[in-house]
Amino acid sequence: MGFKKKQMLGFGLILLFLAILLSFMMVTLNNLKSSMTEIVENRYEKVQASMEIRQLFSRSDREILFAANDANKEERAESLEIINENHNLIESKIAGLSGTLNKVKAKQLLKEFETQYASYSITEAEIIQKIKSGNSSDDLSSLMDDQREKRTKVISTMDEFKDYQEGVMNDTLNNSKQTYEDMIGFVIFAVILSILVISVTVVWMIRSTSKDLQSITKVIKNIDYKNLSVIPRVPVRTTDEIGDIARSFNEMAGSLEIYNQKEKDFTEKISEQNWIQTRVADIATMYQRIVDVEVLADRFITRLAPMMGASIGAFYVKRGEGVDMRFVKLASFAGDGEDSGRREFRLGEGLIGQCALEKESKVIEDIPEDFQLVTTGLGEVNPKSIVIAPVVFEDEVVAMVELASLESFTKLQKTFLNQVLDTLGITINNVEGRMEIERLLKESQAQTEELQAQSEELQSQSEEMQAQSEELQTQAEELRMINEQLEERNRETEEKSKELQVAKLNLEKQAEELKLSSKYKSEFMANMSHELRTPLNSILILSEMLSDPNDSKLNEEQQEFARVINSSGQDLLTLINDILDLSKVEVGKLEVVFDEMNLSELPEQLHRNFDHVAKKKNIDFIIEKSKNVPDIFFTDEQRFQQILKNLLSNAFKFTEKGSVTVQIKKADEENVAQWIQTKGASNWVEIKVTDTGIGISKEKQKLIFEAFQQGDGATMRKYGGTGLGLSICREFAKLLGGWVIVDSEEGQGSTFTFFIPSMPEGFKNVGEAIAASPEVAAANHDDSAVPFESQGEPDVVIVDEEDRYKVKPFCNKTVLVVDDDHRNIFALKNALKHEGMEILTAENGYECLELLEKGNNIDVILMDIMMPGMDGYETMTRIREQSKFEDLPIIALTAKAMKGDREKCLKAGASDYVSKPLKLDQLLSVLRVWLTN
User: Fold this and answer.
1) What is residue 791's DSSP assignment?
2) Which one, of 806, 537, 788, lies nearest residue 644 by Cα?
3) Any idea what the Cα angle at residue 403 is, between residues 400 and 404, rounded to 5°?
């Protein structure tokens, strides 16, 4: 065979072999590429999706724990909204993930996760519902335990799904590596075989071809299969088939290097993203429940500096606006007292001020050798790198952060810092907003109190103007009558006109007598209040002292007698207050203030005030409140609460066994209209108080709403009472625009239904009736309608009972008691002497001034108001005219408790004001305040 044929045969065999080799390599490379693509795009996306689902699930779990335990109403609503959004995102991601799965086990795991998550969602919905219903964390404990167990299963299944996907990804990667190794083995085998074939044919091939083949073989043998980042290349010297082999090999080497580099870059990028996201989430969690900028600054710089590898740092916050704007340092990390950076700076001052002006970050690498800022226990070290970054919110710099490190800041750290600062501006704005809201709230409360005082002053002026207007109207009426009389003299019906005039004068006289009678009645009620309260004051003080087991020397039976006397006195005081309430309603001068109240708190208040009564009588107390009842309601809360208190007190009093039920629901306006007009109300509420007590017969159901009336004499003797409670309830209900009805059968219990409107604007005609005398209007010192929550007295210090008997804070103190009633003097003298005080007494203002002029060392004066000769007002005014008594405490005491007396007493010179009958603890507390001050 000729050389040409041998060469053609040899090259033909080589080309055939190379074709097979290249085909196998291409197939293997495609498989390898497919495996890498599946790892990078498909498997990674599934793992990433599972991680995102878990993060959303974990965040929902945190939010539901926060809403159940710590959140207030607004935070709870925000948490529930976040939970709902996360729930929708999880379901959408599960749906998207389900469409991409191609493995049976993966589908099974996802199906199992969907089942467990559905069960978890049901429990989560129940918890949310109970949270919205206002249940406490104790009520949610069982559901929370069930939720934690299901949460563990859901997380376990999701972790198993993620681990499976990662396992599949690792298996695919291992298969790719095995394919690559097989390809390399085959290439080596093919090369060796090629060498053998070429060696056989080299005898009859051109000698120069052997050199090219040797160079290819040498390159292949020098490949480091453990490190494919750099693969040697075959030099191409010819354009024949050997040259093609060399070029193909070089291309393959380049492809392998590119894939290897992509794999490294991808792994490094994922690690960096995880590092950044973990730390960003950590800092974002730290922001929660921070309500002060200084706390935020301190926690932020303390947490950020170690994450950035910084050795020192400072945090500046913007203060002021315009020319007064500056950045003040609120926190630092590893600072050295006053030397750790500037305390404040303005825009454009220094590098940090320039960065704030330009709203751009700056990194300083070339730091002078003498720049020493980082301090250790051994000395000072100059940093290698400094970063200055602005915190921007809505294109405005709100803060500046400066960090210094002994090493250069990496690109990853800079990226992390930018992401953290992106959300920090929002956080600073939110915290400052909450601080501003709190400040405005306090300012608004102060302004509200000021406006209330102005409103009371305007109301007083309005009443004076109304009186003047009535006087002018009376004069105009008299002029009109004179004109009519002059006109009637010129008419033929002069006699009839005279008769009509006489009749009119008689009517006016009767009206004047009626008005005078009402005035006498009002004065009588006020004076009766004073006359009854004055002896009652002594009874209550002395009986309270006698019944005190720590102070009294009486035996147990005698102390019980004293307690019975005190209890009877309190009942008498309640009766006086009820009678005065009816008097104020009768003359139309009972003040009604319509304001906003929260009906959602009503069941809790009722339970707190009547559960002990139900427990004592061993009867059930049930409160049912419909969901459609509005939370915000406009009425006079004090009168509203007194009506419910009276109705419930009656229900418990007349019920020996069974239950008392309160039903609160939104009333049907058509149903209410059959009892009372419904115009002007935004909505109506119906409150039913049902008991299983003695019941009321049909013929007596109207009688019980009249004053001093009960079902019958036997009822009054058995259960006690004055018969005023239901009368007050109906009268108060009328003042509030509502009504009270009863439905009862004797022996079957009773149901009292209270209809009440929500009146945001109140009633325009309330209070327009002729005003009663101020004595009746204020005779009970606003104690007639005590709300469910006990009313506190201002400026009273509460002292522990045990401490009261251990320490005598009034020892060596002298008190001057000024009172014309010897019973009050006796009671106060004994009570105060028991506290270790020296007592001086005076029966009127003249004696009081004489005692003061004698130079007695008097520490405090108890001044009665109504006294003969010189009353308390004039006495206090004369005392205050003397500069040496300018700071002497004077406490005004009165049993009349007229409207405006407190302000009148303080204006006359009183330091404080206490109404009779006195409560001994209250009086001692007031004395303690003024003697201490």
Assistant:
1) P
2) 788
3) 150
Of 88, 61, 282, nearest to 154 (Cα)? 61
For residue 534, the 8-state DSSP code is H
> pLDDT tier at 778 (50, 70, 90 boundaries)?
very low
Rounded CA-CA distance 932/157 in Å is: 69
Name the one residue in this structure whose structure tokens are 């304001």.
595
Structure tokens of 579?
A: 């009678």
Do residues 712 and 701 touch, judged by C-beta distance below 8 A? no
The reported pLDDT for the residue numbered 532 is 67
SS3 124: helix
CA distance 862 to 106: 88
Q: In what order do the strands lie in the sheet with 312-319?
A: 344-345, 326-333, 312-319, 396-405, 385-393, 362-364
Q: Exposed/middle/buried for 448, CB within 10 Å: 0-12, 13-18, 19+?
A: exposed
Cβ burial, residue 503 (10 Å; 0-12/13-18/19+): exposed
* Closest among 668, 729, 640, 658 to 695, alpha carbons compared: 658
Give the position of tokens 């006086």.
576
Q: Residues 6 or more apart from 194 whose CB is under 8 A from it?
A: 14, 17, 18, 21, 213
CA distance 614 to 655: 10
Alpha carbons 662 and 688: distance in angstroms, whole number: 6
316 three-class SS: strand
Q: Residue 150 has which token pair?
A: 């299901």
Question: Which SS3 state, helix, strand or coil, does residue 499 take?
Answer: helix
Q: Give the residue with greater pLDDT, 136 vs 873.
A: 873
Largest CA distance in the chain: 171
Q: Kindly state the tokens that stand for 58.
A: 């974990």
First-to-final CA distance of the chain: 132
| Cβ pair 247, 383 in contact under 8 A | no
Least confident of 606-620, 707-721, 733-747, 901-915: 707-721
- CA–CA distance, 173 with 539 (Å, rounded to integer): 97
Asked whether the beta carbons of 94 and 49 are under 8 A apart, the reply is no
Lowest-pLDDT range of 118-127, 577-586, 801-810, 881-890:
801-810
Question: Sign of dihedral through CA atoms 113, 119, 122, 128?
Answer: negative
Distance, in Å, from the CA atom of 576 to the CA atom of 540, rounded to the nearest integer, reads 15
pLDDT tens sequence across 890-921? 999 876 555 567 788 989 999 998 887 777 78
Residue 739 CA to residue 675 CA, distance in Å, equals 7
Q: What angle do CA 621, 627, 628 make, to 5 degrees?
A: 125
Whether the model pTM is above 0.85:
no
Residues 103, 161 contacting (CB under 8 angstroms): no
As a whole number of angstroms, the distance between CA 907 and CA 902 comes to 9
Residue 586 burial by CB count (10 A; 0-12/13-18/19+): exposed, middle or buried?
Answer: middle
Residues 6+ apart with CB under 8 A from 623: 603, 606, 607, 661, 662, 664
Cβ-based burial of 875 (10 A; exposed 0-12, middle 13-18, buried ≥19): buried
**C-alpha to C-alpha distance for 688 and 751, rounded to whole angstroms:** 6
The Cα–Cα gap between 720 and 704 comes to 14
With H, G, I as helix, E, B as strand and everything else as coil, classify residue 772: coil
- Distance CA(537)–CA(524), nearest Å, equals 19
Long-range contacts of 75-81 (CB under 8 A, 24+ apart): 76/131, 80/128, 80/131, 80/132
- State the Cα angle at 540 between 534 and 546, rounded to 5°: 140
pLDDT in tens, 312-357: 888 898 888 877 888 888 888 876 555 556 788 888 888 888 888 8
